[in-house]
């Protein structure tokens, strides 16, 4: 319980600094703190956390960042080279200097949560916490207790947002700090948008990010949601994303995880209206002693809803990967199609994967399947490449990239895809030298 | 299929429901150290056995009943169960079939599996467990010539204490789980099989379990040991009379296979599933585990589960020996308000170990079924291989089918594959058959039998016939 106390002390100190708040925020904050105090951090005895040990977070001592100072040059190097509406947060603190909302149309609102709360807090009060209650997890409760910054995105009905909306979270090296960003997206009916969450930072950072995102898609809305998590290798990253889908909506999640010492993602989609479709694409790459845990859940709450999931894991060194995917079909939700696939590639003898694809089905007219495989690179494929004059290291690199390629080729944003390819290639320079691969390919053609 | 046909399926009566009236020497309900001492004394057990039971009992008292299974049932009052029930005359148990109580034989007749006929025709030695005490053992002589020991566990404790001491509880420890601990404390009977080095058991061994006296839990303990290069095929089949109160069955089965040994364990389980409202019916909480201790050993589980109100069962293999093989073939059919949470665990420890899982689930009526499995690959299990296929067939829109496979893989040389599908019998499949003059009922039966074929072909001949018959009986009400 003492682990919990450290966090509660920080929370109390913070509350005393804070100006008077609207009562609903104070009440919700209290509910979060009370829930967190009651349940404490999860242990491996909890089924949901069976494979993930969060002691490194629980036993940490994280302060709260006070400023958003970040070197312009470094930020520029980390920022995705994309023409986008951009909000930047440094250790959870909003940085207007690194943000860019130029030419944002009136039909779209993109603003930091702190501003949304000061300008018109009533409008946020309803949707905030509607999808992610404090009961969801200790981390959601903690996020609610600490919530003060994050992003609010509102898209008016019928609006097609031409440029992607980029939410950038940067992590600084130095005294460990924690941040609890809250993201709220309300996509109006028949609107269409691309949202990018991007986590990056200074190499030596050792911070803790605990983000909660709530995404609401009204009738006919389309949302493409990219999450590129390339946090520093010392960072802890816990995230939950709850999606609510109305009739005929389409949500596509691209969950790309490369960084972080300890990573846990919870992605949940509620298909509440007929014709709703959800696509979960994921890639996780672990090396060193990284621990990457992905939990996904699709709730088919209405008939004629569709889901499609494909998660790929590549694990090297002593990395530990977890995949837990669940497809739930509610009683009388007929004419459902739900597909799930998880494939894992183990590159080292000490890498470890725990996979648990689940189906929970209460209707009979459904087509649901899941498949999961774990293996290593096909020795015969490597041999085939070597007979064509490609050295073994290059052959392994090509095949590994090809394995990741199945997910990457669906990433429509080149800047994001390139970042992943480079990160994967850059992380293992001797074996995955992308430039070298290209050269090899070119010389073969000559 | 039409709704009324579905309802007929749901209303299918339990064909084998009747009570045979044999006076039982039953212990009053309740469980404490005295109960255990009574059982131990009644069985004429040595001191060490009683100590072992008490040790288990103390561990059980400290344990909590598990709640993680996808099952729903009222709490069990362990003090309201009677823990011992034996047929009237335990002293002069029949030595041959002729001496068997004619009423018991009559019971078997009603079930359509006449003991003598079956034994003679199929060459099966039957150690019939009527309630808790073995009442008939046949073909013992022939087995003895081959050096195979096949007797009740009580006899084994008396006659072969060293063997029992050496192996009992080594695969399923006393405190393995709540129900295994309970079983270790109060088990009353079960079978013991020992096949010595190099011997292939000359016949398939079979035990028919029956639960008969009201309020009596059945706590069977089975131990099968195959020494190097030995082989045995063991058949277990169950039926039960109709009953109003829930009956608890918590059996433990332990298998040990040494170098190059092969144990095949087949089960057909058709206990009373409860009535339309799910009243009555057996609670079947079973721990079955085999250990491939020796190199190249092989353990194969095949089960056809059609009965019981609640099934909670995961026959498992611990693959310790190099290149050992574990197999699991299962067909589970649930109907009415039956619930089943079943599957397997394959623990790969040794190098080059392989496992193969085929699980087929059919849920009809308002029943719920889950496949829950674990494939664990240890760091030293180089080149381990697993293939898992679990398919669910849903009949009617009130049933549920769930899959919870766990994979824990700690070795990069392992190759693991898992596939699962959930579907119903396609309208187009039925139409195809019907357009060729096949009745709907036959078509459904054909499709379901085809769905289960992978498992049925693993069953020994006589059992396969019985299993198919059982499935057809289940489906009889489904159409027409």
From TrEMBL, chain A:
Pfam families: SUFBD_core, SufBD_N
All copies of domain SUF system FeS cluster assembly SufBD N-terminal, residue ranges: 18-165
Ranges of residues in domain SUF system FeS cluster assembly SufBD core: 177-403
Transmembrane segments: none
UniProt GO BP: iron-sulfur cluster assembly
PANTHER family: PROTEIN ABCI7, CHLOROPLASTIC
Family membership: Belongs to the iron-sulfur cluster assembly SufBD family.
NCBIfam families: sufD
Protein name: Fe-S cluster assembly protein SufD
Automatic annotation (TrEMBL), chain B:
GO biological process: iron-sulfur cluster assembly
SUPFAM superfamilies: Stabilizer of iron transporter SufD (SSF101960)
Domain SUF system FeS cluster assembly SufBD N-terminal residue range list: 139-200
Domain SUF system FeS cluster assembly SufBD core: 209-451
UniProt superkingdom: Bacteria
Coiled-coil ranges from the UniProt annotation: none
Similarity comment text for this entry: Belongs to the iron-sulfur cluster assembly SufBD family.
UniProt-recorded name of the protein: Iron-regulated ABC transporter membrane component SufB
Species this protein is from: Vreelandella subterranea
